[in-house]
Amino acid sequence: MKRILFLGCAAMMALQIQAQGNNTGNGGQDGNYESLAQKVLKLEKKNDAFQVYLNFAASAQAKEADGVWQTGFANKQLRLEIKGNLTDKLSYRFRHRLNKSNAAKSEDNFAKATDIMMVNYQFNPKFSVQAGKMCQIWGGFEFDENPMYIYQYSDMVDNMDNFMAGVGVTYKPVPTQEIAVQISDAYNGKFDDEYGAGAMVAGKSLTDFSALRGSNNPLTYIVNWNGSFFNDILQTRWSWGIQTQARGKYSRMLVLGQRLNLPKFQWYIDYMGAFDGLDRLRIATGDLGHLLNESNAYFSDVHYHSFITKANWQFAPQWNLMLKGMCEKSSVSKIEELKNYRTSYGYMASVEYFPVKQQDFRIFLAYIGRKYDFKESTALKNYSTNRIELGMMYRIKCF
Q: Please, what's the b/e burial string for 216-234 (b: 16 or more CB within 10 A of its CB; e: otherwise)?
C-alpha cells in the first residue's frame, strides 16, 4: 500500500509539472545520499531513471543599510528537480522554481520559473547532444555552483539571465577534457518585451541617442572548455561567447575559472569580463539612469569585470568553513566622465555544520558584506551593506 501511495503521488507531481509547462554543477552533482523513499518507505532503488529532489534554503536575517538594522525570516531557495537516465544513452533533467512566476514568456514559451527542461542523448562516451531549455554554458565555478549554496552572487552573475532554450554539443577527446558548443536564445521574451517599445541607446555622450531595433537572429553562441589535471586536483572552466542583443549591438563575454580541488580544501578563482554593445546586465543603466534625458534609454559600450575567489575548508568531520571575496568594476567606456564609474567589493564567511550523515543537509551561520564606491562625476553616494544569516540548506532527495 505504501508503494502504491508513493508512486501515485510521484505520478501526480509529474502531471502537475507537465501542466506548468548542463552544467556539470548547477545542482547536477549528487553524492551518495539516502532518499526519503528508501528511508521511510523502504523502497529499493534499482535504477536512476526517476530521481526527485527539493532544493530548499531558508534563514533568519539581520540586515544593515545606512546604519539601520532590520530583522526577519526569508526563504532563499525552493526548487523542484526531476531527472534521470532512461537508457544508457538518453537522459533528461527538469528544474522548476516554486516561488517564481509561471507565466510563459513570448519568445521561448517557457516560464521564468522553469530553469531547465532538457534532454541529452549520449551517442558514445565522447559525443553527446543536448536540447531544450538549459543553463547557458558560461564558465567559472561560481556560475556553475548550485544556487542553493551561494550566499551572495557577484554583481555580474546576480544580473545575468542565463536559462535559455537552445541546443548544445559536447565532445570529450579524452575523459579529463571536455569541449562544448551551445547556441541558444539571447532572451526569453521578444525584443519589445525585454526593452520596451521605442527604446533608445546612448552613444558617445549623454545627449547622443539613437533608436534600438530588434535583431532578426537574437541568439547566443558559446564555446566552453572544462579541464581536469593531476587526478582532478586542478580544474578549469573557461568560456567565450557572443550574444546578439539588438540590431548591430552585441555582448561579448569571457569567463576563466580555475579551482584547486583537494580532499579537504577547495579554492577557486574566477574572472568574468562582459563587453556589452548594449547594457545587457543593466547595472550601469540602473545606477546612472538619472543622467539620461530619454525615459526608456540604455547605455552602450559598457564593460564589466569581476574577480571572484572562494575557499572551502572541511576543518573537522561534518564541518566546513567558507571564505569568499569579490572585486568588480563597471565602466561606460565611450563617455569619459563615466569610465570606471563604479567599484564594488564583496566579502563573506560562513561556518556550516552537517548534522546528519547520508543527507545533504547543513546548518549555517554566515556574514555577507558589500561596499560600493562611485566616481564623483556620477553624483552617487558611496554606501555599504551588512547581513548576518542563521539558517539551513537541504537538498532533499525524495526518490
A: eebebebebebebeeeeee
* Cβ-based neighbours of 256, under 8 Å, separated by 6 or more: 139, 140, 236, 238, 270, 271
Residues 6+ apart with CB under 8 A from 8: none
Write the pLDDT tens digit of every residue in 305-330.
999 999 999 999 999 999 999 999 99
Residues 6+ apart with CB under 8 A from 155: 281, 283, 304, 306, 326, 328, 330, 344
Using alpha carbons only, what angle is made at residue 32 by residues 29 and 33, rounded to the nearest 5 degrees? Answer: 100
Task: Answer whether 387's CB lies under 8 Å from 348's CB.
Answer: no
Residue carrying C-alpha cell 569585470: 305
Hey, how many other C-beta atoms are within 10 angstroms of the C-beta on 157? Answer: 23
Q: How far apart are CA 57 and CA 74, in angstroms?
A: 9
The cell numbers describing 242, all together, are 557572443
The region of weakest confidence among 35-49, 61-75, 134-148, 379-393 is: 35-49
Whether pTM exceeds 0.90: no
Q: Taking 80 as the threshold, does the pLDDT of residue 26 lie above it? A: no
According to DSSP, the residues that pair with 398 across neighbouring strands are none
Rounded to 5°, the CA angle 147-151-156 comes to: 70
Residue 82 backbone zone (phi > 0: left; psi -120 to 50: alpha; other: beta): beta
| pLDDT tens string 77-91 | 999 999 999 999 999
Hey, is 10 helix, strand or coil?
Answer: helix
Looking only at the bridges linking them, the beta strands covering 177-185 and 219-229 are: antiparallel
What is the 3-state composition of the chain as percent helix, strand, coil, each rounded to the nearest 5? 15, 55, 30
Greatest CA separation for the chain: 72
Residue 241: what residue type?
A: G
